[in-house]
Specification:
Elements: E1 7-13, H1 20-28, E2 36-42, H2 49-57, E3 63-67, H3 73-83, E4 88-91, E5 96-98, H4 102-114, E6 120-129, H5 134-143, E7 162-164, E8 168-173, H6 174-179, H7 191-202, E9 206-217, H8 223-244, H9 249-267, H10 272-300, H11 307-327
Parallel strand pairs: 1-2, 1-4, 2-3, 6-9
Antiparallel strand pairs: 4-8, 5-9, 6-8, 7-9
Length: 329
């Protein structure tokens, strides 16, 4: 007979008034048969986030809210883990919500792999588009495309319970997290990637992804929102790569492309052929994007011309973010 121990679910939040109630209610409605506690680490929000959580606390005593003076997700998660009264902890972002079976599926999968793998540190989830507007559908297509660097090995593309080096919404062994240093609080973004790679590559623990553990994520739904998000992601991802001492080639690709275009444009002042090369590269780039748009329009039976705008926002935002990180000492 399967035992269902107490699990702490941690949510680091900052100005999430539009999403926090749905997030917490989805965690309150889980089918998991054991006891749960929901620990919200509020980064001193200036909107209604804390008031919404306090209102939910009036009816549910298993909701705990703590202050996160540092504001960032890494520090908030660490504070929540330390406040946890459980041997297992799971996390969910505040702008996400979980399928009702999410925690139960995670725990049962964790038990399953632990039978054969004593080095398991945790099991993670997959996420899908929460909004499902034409814009966010196009955004989901873009972020899952090979044109962004997403390959078949991505945890989001696994069909069965599989080993991975990264996942989202993970259920972890709390003791292992504490022994290996918790989240790196020097990182404002990418702390989950750094932690998962540290667990698997530095300490030799195993991480799995369970595609049946489903969450829903609210994506940025404007072009400037995506661009600014990727600008920040690129800036912090380079710092993560340096910490992990991993191969930088994939991370640097968008930056190299931007520098190449800029070099051609500068050289065109003294050599007109360089401007022709600049135009040819630009046309080739847009041609690849257009072909991708047509393919997905037929596949999804929706107009995917938005991809023509979303891809450059991702590529140039991310590339400029990495360049900014390289230049900033």
């Amino acid at each position: 007979m399967t035992e269902f121990p107490k699990i702490s679910i941690i949510v680091a939040a900052y100005n999430e008034e539009n999403f926090i109630e749905k997030c917490i209610r989805s965690l309150l409605n889980q089918t998991y048969k054991g006891e749960t506690e929901i620990i919200v680490a509020d980064g001193m929000s200036s909107d209604m986030t804390s008031s919404i959580v306090q209102k939910l606390q009036e009816d549910k005593k298993n909701i705990i809210m703590i202050d996160n003076p540092e504001r960032f997700q890494s520090s908030g998660r660490n504070l929540a883990i330390r406040a946890s009264g459980s041997e297992l902890v799971a996390y969910l972002d505040a702008h996400s919500y979980a399928d009702e079976h999410w925690l139960e599926v995670l725990y049962l999968s964790y038990c399953k792999v632990k039978e054969n793998d004593s080095r398991v540190a945790g099991v993670g989830s997959v996420y899908f588009d929460a909004e499902k507007s034409l814009f966010t559908i196009a955004s989901s297509v873009a972020f899952n495309s090979i044109l962004i660097g997403t390959t078949k090995s991505s945890f989001l593309k696994q069909k069965t319970l599989s080993k991975t080096d990264n996942a989202y919404g993970c259920l972890y062994d709390k003791k292992l997290l504490e022994e290996t240093g918790l989240y790196n609080e020097s990182l404002q973004i990418g702390e989950d990637i750094e932690l998962n790679h540290r667990l698997t590559n530095k300490y030799g623990f195993s991480l799995y992804v369970e595609p049946g553990a489903i969450t829903y994520y609210y994506r940025r739904n404007t072009l400037d929102g995506i661009f600014n998000q990727q600008l920040n992601y690129g800036f912090w991802r380079w710092k993560v790569v340096k910490l992990l001492k991993g191969p930088p080639y994939k991370i640097l690709a968008p930056s190299i492309f931007i520098l190449f275009l800029l070099l051609l444009l500068l050289l065109s002042v003294i050599e007109p052929a360089c401007f022709l090369a600049f135009l040819l590269v630009g046309v080739a780039y847009m041609g690849i994007l257009f072909t991708n748009c047509v393919y997905h329009s037929f596949r999804l039976k929706k107009n995917m011309l938005l991809l023509m705008l979303i891809y450059p926002c991702i590529h140039f935002g991310y590339g400029l973010g990495v360049l900014k990180s390289l230049l900033k000492k």
